[in-house]
Amino acid sequence: MIAESLAVFLLAIAFDILLGEPPAKVHPVVWIGRLITFLRTKAKPSKAGGIALAIIVIAATVLSGHLMVRAAGYVPLLPLLVSAYLLKSTFAIKCLLEVSRDIGLMIDRDMNEAKSMLPALVGRDTSSLSKSQASSAVIESLSENYVDSILSPIFYYLLFAPLGYGLEAALAFKAVSTMDSMIGYKTRGLKEIGFAAAKLDDLANYIPARLSILFIALARPASASAALRAALRDHGRTPSPNSGWPMAALAGALNIRLEKSGYYVLVAKGAEPKTSDVLRALRLMQTAIALTLAAALLILFSWPMESWTIVMI
Known about the structure:
Blueprint: H1 2-19, H2 28-42, H3 47-71, H4 78-88, H5 93-109, H6 111-117, H7 131-160, H8 166-183, H9 195-204, H10 206-219, H11 224-234, H12 244-254, E1 258-260, E2 264-266, H13 275-301, H14 305-312
Antiparallel strand pairs: 1-2
Helix pairs in contact: 1-4, 2-3, 2-8, 3-4, 3-8, 5-6, 5-7, 5-13, 7-8, 7-10, 7-12, 7-13, 8-9, 10-11, 10-12, 10-13, 11-12
């Protein structure tokens, strides 16, 4: 069981780093999004309707992934490839780093183009952002998405891998995350139906968000104490109960001020972020991601030898 989980994990990481995101037509997250869109038109715009929508989306996602792997069992090695492909769809290492880097570089080259690119990362109005505010937005999103798009799905994969349901757990998380990104807003028309999705996302990211500050701190040992102090002090300044942890830790590690105008300020006494700080943040987060993957592999390798023997026989 653990040997299989390790092989799936390694192959999924290879898929992500070497190939990046699959085409939209065959991307499992796109399929989840289409299901959410369809169900939203059918569900009652109420909390009860939102709960029903969430149950159906999570159940359909997990069951579909499970059945796809089972159906692939008639061809040697195909279940491994299908499992790795589905697991890869739950995280986006290459995409997050590349998009963040491209926007960071574009802020210096063409601010108008950068503003048009920013919605790929952030949900705020970008039309009036300065270079400093745009740089802050990229850095904030980079740290927040490290949790949501990398650490959390890996966390749930590892948590349930010993039971043989690591892939299903990662897919369930991705279903929750996708629902939150589509309907988990406190706006008219979404506040009620998106309530369940938003609360489930808060719950699912609760532990990973707090674990993230350790990886961010370890990624820059010289400023580890500053990262941890900033996270412990400023994490509650954001509306989200989770996003403040990685954002404040990264701001503390880099000693920069991160601000979403009208919403929050993190590390208020830090320097105004510059475009060069986006590259600094990227280097730090690349190290944090590498540490995350190393820790995951260490956990998978640490399981008792009996678990390996059973699979290998």
